[in-house]
Write a structure and sequence with these properties.
Helix content is about 25%, strand content about 30%. With about 100 residues, it is an alpha+beta fold. A hairpin with a 5-residue loop joins strand 2 and strand 3.
Length: about 100
């Protein structure tokens, strides 16, 4: 299984007001962490290519954001950071269910 995003990032905001940020582009704590193929463009030519890019990974970086905008990832997951990296698809599904039910 793999995750495909448009430009490497998306957010899910749940009815409880919590938001889950999912990032798998260059610099994310995922299998694309150092993949400069997905680096943000620095020229107009690269921007055109970047605007059409689909980013694939087996892992992603996530963050849980409270309704008041605070990063609360460490309050709900086993991490000492504001994000949790190297999350595989199965764990992502578990986290989506967790955040939906906070």
């Amino acid at each position: 299984m793999n995750l495909i995003t448009d430009k490497g990032h998306f957010w899910i905001t749940f009815s409880n007001g919590y938001t889950l940020s999912v990032f798998n582009g260059f610099g994310s704590y995922s299998d694309n962490h150092h993949n400069d193929k997905y680096m943000y463009p620095i020229s107009e030519k690269e921007l055109i290519r970047y605007n059409n890019i689909k980013i694939e990974s087996n892992e992603c970086e996530i963050a849980i954001i409270s309704p008041d905008g605070n990063l609360v990832t460490a309050d709900y997951l086993d991490t000492n950071d504001s994000v949790k990296g190297y999350v595989d698809i199965n764990e992502l599904i578990e986290i989506i269910n967790l955040v939906n039910n906070i």
